[in-house]
Design a protein that fits this description.
The complex is a heterodimer of chains A (245) and B (284). Chain A is mostly helical and 245 residues long. Chain A is 44% helix and 10% strand. In chain B, helix 4 crosses helix 5 and helix 8 runs parallel beside helix 9. Chain B is 39% helix and 20% strand. In chain B, the strands form three sheets. Chain B has an eight-stranded parallel barrel. Chain B has a two-stranded antiparallel sheet with strand order 5-6. A two-stranded antiparallel ribbon of chain B has the order 11-12. Chain B has nine helices and 13 strands. The chains are: A mainly alpha (245), B alpha/beta (284). At the A-B interface, helix 1, strand 1 and helix 2 of A face helix 2, helix 3, strand 5, strand 6 and strand 8 of B. Strand 1 of chain A pairs antiparallel with strand 8 of chain B.
Amino acid sequence: MTVSQAAFKTAILDPAAAVPTGIVNPDGAAASKRFDVYRNNVAVSLSDALEAAFPVVRKLVGDEFFRAMAGVYLRKHPPKTPLMMFYGDAMPQFLGRFEPTKKFGYLPAIARIELAMRHAYHAKDVTPADANALTAVAPDALMSTKLKIAPATQTVTSDFPIHAIYLANTQADAPKPVMQPEAVMITRAGFDPQIHLINAAAASCIEALKKGQSLGQATATADTTLDLGVVLGLLLAQGAVTEIY
Amino acid sequence: MLDATTHPALPARPGVGYKAQHYSDIMEDSGPLGWLEIHAENYMGDGGRPLAQLRHLAERFPISVHGVGLSIGGEGNLDTDHLGRLKHLVSWLNPASFSEHLAWSTHDSHFFNDLLPLPYTAKTLSRVATHINQVQDTVGRRMLLENPSSYLAFAESTMSETDFLRELTQRTGCGLLLDVNNVFVSATNLKTSPQAYIDDFPLEAVGEIHLGGHDEDEDETGAPLLIDSHGKAVVDPVWALLDYTLAKSGPKPLLIEWDTDVPEWPVLADEISRADRALALITS
């Protein structure tokens, strides 16, 4: 009797499934509790990875609920690579569709922030452009100028006060969130990712710059809520611009 | 045959599985610590603190790169993306050693983050040998293959684990990583003798020895079921098995593995000192 890895895999992920025939204890008898060691190792290690990846989501939904939800998630979305530091990239979509969490509209954006923080932590090291270099650009050339943005730089936009919620769950004495749309930018100057409150227009502009659009293109459709000076000042101060060209 | 000529060898001294929280302790006072082991997958990001720390550590210590996700025992083809990431890490770091496990962890593009067992047959031997050859050819290095912890057996197995590993070294030229805690765990779980396993083991191929802690449980028949948890101190019978092994093998690089419920540095330093004494016992 050959035990295929497909049969092993199915039984690992489904606690109700029978242990594949051909797996035995030292006396040649069936070995279901021994097989359970693998079931437990897999579920615990993947749950632990999700807990480490989403501490704020976990705080928001509670430890017990998160553990149960992780059990559902890991069976629906087992890792696709051995890079556990990036496990959980389907969590925002999952939270938006999972029946018990879908009414909490801010959860997917909080999960996106936590993913972005992890990606920023492991992003490529860069040398920031000189923060004064932009002032050297002639005023009539400014709108055709492009900025190369550091790979750690990411934005998340939401109809919910995600910056305030994130802070309230990661910092002591953070103010109570007030219901309003918020956007954030994650940057990494040095080794520790930082989160900054921006607005949706700024997020849209930063995403356009990341795609290689010029300042003119990136601001073409912006309304009056975009303060380009503030956006550029923040990007440069955070070492998030690596080239001005 | 691929072999190491341009990188330092692991010294026959105590090493430890590196955890970021011990960075300052290790840099300030390393005591008898002679080398460090890292899990390859934790250093496959593009940059940031993990890689910066690793570069600093590598200036001070020989490094062993220990992969936990290649799935060498898998039925399917090796993940060439992952193999490429390993090649990249080994290329820039130029570690003293590179090792992986006799286990599988990926099936049908899904990774299970655990070391899953395989039966020992002519068919699996041939498959694993092919995978090891592919790894050594791609990474450009001789690798060490680690014996697993076993909780169960496969009725279809036709070879002993020691014969299986010996045959792999002969077919591929790979070396072996002997985990004496795994030997003790497997022997207890499968009701065999750990000393007999060491007697049968091709010790001449061993490039490194692992030591770790395990949890104790029972199966449904009341038989002991030890679980390789890497979350506790090494137990006395495993230290005794180490002494038994070193008396036969001579000095080897010894690694203390502690991956869950990781303690403060002084607790690990005690384990490192004990490993140092075990080495002193056979060299004195």
